[in-house]
Structure formats: C-alpha cells, structure tokens
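Complex 196.
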Amino acid sequence: MRPLYLLPLAALALAAAACSKETPAPQAEAKPAESPFQITATIQDIMDAEVDPAADFLWASTGFVSDKTGLHDKTPHTEAEWTAVRRNALILIEATNLLRMEGRQVATRELDREEKGGEDDPQKIQKAIETNWTAFIGFARRLHDVGSDMLKAIDKRDIAGMDKLGEDLDAACEACHRTFWYPNAVEPIQTLEPPK
Ligand code: HEC
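Predicted structure with heme C bound:
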C-alpha cells in the first residue's frame, strides 16, 4: 500500500508542474547540513583581539588619567574621537555573537602555572560551556545588552551615562568569567569600612 505521507508531496509536485508551463519552478534547495560559518578564532582569541581591547577603550573614554605630565582628559571631544568610541562599542557588541557560535573552541593556549589564579584549564571550560550552554548564551547576551545601552549613551554623547554603564560592563564580564573561567578563584574580600 502507498504510504499516506507521500500524498501531499505528490500534490505539491502536480501543483508545481501546473505552474511551470513557461518558467520552470525553482528547485527547492535543502538547507546544507554543515554550518555556513568558518570558525577560525578561539574564545580566548576573541577576548584578546576584540572584547578586551574594545572594553578597555570604552572604559578609558569616560575619565581622566593622571601621570607624571599631569591630568589628561580622556573623554571624547572631536567627531573623530566620538567615531572611535562608537566603533569600539560596535566591535564589543558584535563580538558577543561570535562567542555564541556553536563549535567554537575555548582556547589553544593553556596558562602557565605561575600565571594561574584559579583559572580552569581550557578543556574543563569547554566542557562546562557545552553542558551549561544556555547559561553561557545568557552571559553573552547580557554583555550584548550592556554594550547596546553603551552605544545609545555614546550616540547621545552622555559621558555620565557611559561612565555608569562602564560598571555594568565590568559586571557582565565578571559574571561569565566567575562561572566559566575561574569558578574556583578566591573572591577578594570586599569591605567598605576601613580596617580597625
Ligand atoms: C559569555 C562569557 C564571557 C563574557 C561575557 C566575557 N568573557 Fe572573557 N573569557 C571568557 C572565557 C570562557 C575565557 C577563558 C578563555 C581562556 O582560557 O583564556 C575568557 C578569557 C578572557 C581573557 C583572557 C584571554 C587570554 O588571552 O587568555 C580576557 C582578557 C577577557 N576574557 C576579557 C573579557 C572582558 C574585558 C569582558 C567584558 C567586556 C569579557 N572578557 C567578557 C568568557 C567570557
């Protein structure tokens, strides 16, 4: 007996034939099984090349830096300076999509023992990300959203707003790092009172 599920397909084929008297109906192409992306960098590379420098640029754009030669205003003033800040916000925001691409390796370089302060080995981080993928995506999304708010503040030239968002940015980095990168790091003791 002819399986029933073939019937709708057969009907579609007939309909397609009816439509294609003059111009042949385009062949439906199946979605290729393999990913359309070509992944090159590790998460570590993306941190190093995009996330970290872009965040540093944004943090530096909201304050004053003092050195031997005096106090320097690092806030943007010229059009070119604002454009540079905006570009860094975009790099940071879009890098969060790169982090979320499935199949990306965490790192190829393991930290030297002396460098370590509670950081897990790449294989352990990789496993943790794979088994807690939804949480990882959530942290990347949070970074994206803080970055987007930062972009809005930049477009309004709101330096006070950017400064405030700088703290949220730091919290968004740390939340993911504490969960996946150095889950066993000792928390620094935070105290608002001066020691007695
Ligand atoms: C969604 C998770 C996530 C977020 C959000 C995140 N990171 Fe990371 N980051 C990681 C992971 C995982 C590693 C560990 C990779 C490794 O072994 O070096 C890492 C490593 C790093 C490193 C070390 C790179 C190296 O060369 O070893 C730096 C620097 C860094 N992150 C900066 C940042 C900054 C700055 C932010 C926020 C603006 C941030 N990260 C936000 C997941 C994240």
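Residues 1-11 have pLDDT under 50 and may be disordered.
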